[in-house]
Design brief:
The chain is 76% helix and 5% strand. With 173 residues, it is mostly helical. It has one domain: Methane Monooxygenase Hydroxylase, Chain G, domain 1. The protein has a two-stranded antiparallel ribbon.
């Protein structure tokens, strides 16, 4: 029984290390979203490409952490005689006592706070990108409709004027 408790404590220590990496990853994701929004507004395509490459690289490295978390979760669920789907931080927190319980509670609260912030920032970034796409579509539509014959415009006195002779691009050399 004593070896099982020691093994469980070792697994909890490993889980705490993994949760710390999760926290750093979410914090990094938050800063990358800020950087992404800034670069989109500045229209810096080169820096956006570098940021995308950096995100891909970090994502590949983070997969290892996810695999470790799944393995420890599986080991902890076996040690606590519960289903893998039931093995959550709340369940683990209920089983622990003392300092380990406090550490798990602290990480859980931080992860909850960071994920809420990440959801909010993600939603804001998605809205920004959606507005950029909508604005670009409006610009393109207005550019391509500019050269169409039969476009009606209004002058300062409110009368209509057909623009039949406007061409957007002059093809003469």
């Amino acid at each position: 029984m004593r070896t099982t408790a020691i093994e469980m404590e070792d697994r909890v220590d490993e889980l705490l290390t993994i949760l710390d990496r999760d926290i750093r990853h979410i914090q990094s994701s938050l800063s990358r979203l800020d950087e992404l929004r800034s670069l989109v507004v500045k229209r810096d395509d080169i820096a956006l490409g570098k940021l995308l490459e950096s995100i891909r690289s970090e994502s590949d490295n983070y997969k290892n952490n996810e695999l470790k978390r799944r393995l420890i979760r599986k080991e902890l669920s076996a040690a606590l005689n519960c289903n893998l789907n039931q093995m959550t931080l709340s369940r683990l927190e209920a089983e622990l006592t003392g300092e380990k319980k406090a550490q798990i509670s602290k990480r859980k609260a931080m992860l909850r706070s960071l994920t809420e912030q990440l959801k909010k920032e993600h939603r804001g970034t998605a809205l920004l990108l959606s507005d950029c796409a909508r604005f670009n579509n409006l610009l393109l539509r207005s550019v391509f409709e500019l050269g169409k014959t039969g476009t009606i415009t209004y002058n300062s006195s409110g009368f209509t004027k057909r623009q039949a002779d406007i061409a957007f691009v002059n093809l003469q050399v």
